[in-house]
Amino acid sequence: MTKAEIVAQIAKKTGLDKETVLTVVEQFMMNVKDSLVDGEPVYLRGFGSFIIKERATKTARNIKEERSIIIPAHNIPAFKPAKSFMGRVSGDLTIEDED
C-alpha cells in the first residue's frame, strides 16, 4: 500500500478532503522522523513502536576487491509491532487487543 492509497482510504472513510488527510499523514511521518532523530522512540499503543536500534562495529568482506572492510557502529530506525498487532497478522486470536 502506498501513501497515496492510505490518504485515499482515510479520506473516503472520514469524509475529509485528500489535501487535509495528506497534510496530516505527512506531518505524522515528519513527527516520527524528528523524534527518532532526537533519539526519542514513538509508542503507539495497540499498533507498535518506532525505535532506534544500535548496530555494533563489524567486519565485512568486499568480494569485488577481495578485502575486508570495517563497518562502523551506527543507528538505524526500526518498527516493533505490538503484541495484539502481531497476533492479528499471524492469525492468533488468543492475543487480546490492547487499549
Briefly summarize what is shown.
By secondary structure, the chain is of the alpha+beta class. It contains 3 helices and 5 strands; from the N terminus they run H-H-E-E-E-E-E-H. 40% of the residues lie in helices and 29% in strands.
Report on this structure.
The protein is 40% helix and 29% strand. It has helices spanning 3-14, 18-37, 83-90, and strands at residues 42-44, 48-55, 58-62, 67-71, 74-81. The mean pLDDT is 92. It is α+β, with helices and mostly antiparallel strands and 99 residues long. The chain folds into two domains: 1-38; 41-89, HU Protein, Chain A (Irregular).
Layout of helices and strands, plus pairs?
Blueprint lengths: L2 H12 L3 H20 L4 E3 L3 E8 L2 E5 L4 E5 L2 E8 L1 H8 L9
Antiparallel strand pairs: 1-2, 2-5, 3-4
Helix pairs in contact: 1-2
* Class inferred from helices and paired strands: alpha+beta
Q: Would you identify the regions where 5 or more consecutive residues have pLDDT less than 50? A: none
Order of SSEs = HHEEEEEH
CATH overall fold name of the largest domain: HU Protein, Chain A
Distance between the termini: 26 Å
Question: How many strands, what sense, and barrel or not for the largest sheet?
Answer: 3 strands, antiparallel
Query: How helical, in percent, are the residues?
Result: 40-55%
Strand order in the sheet with the most strands: 1-2-5
CATH 2nd-level architecture of the largest domain:
Irregular
What's the name of the CATH homologous superfamily of the largest domain? Answer: IHF-like DNA-binding proteins
Treating each run of at least 4 consecutive H or I residues as one helix, how many helices? 3
Whole-number tally of structural domains: 2
The top level CATH class name of the largest domain: Few Secondary Structures
Indicate the proportion of strand residues: 25-35%
Q: Strand tally, please?
A: 5
Report Rg: 19 Å
Overall average residue pLDDT: 92
- Categorize the overall geometry: elongated
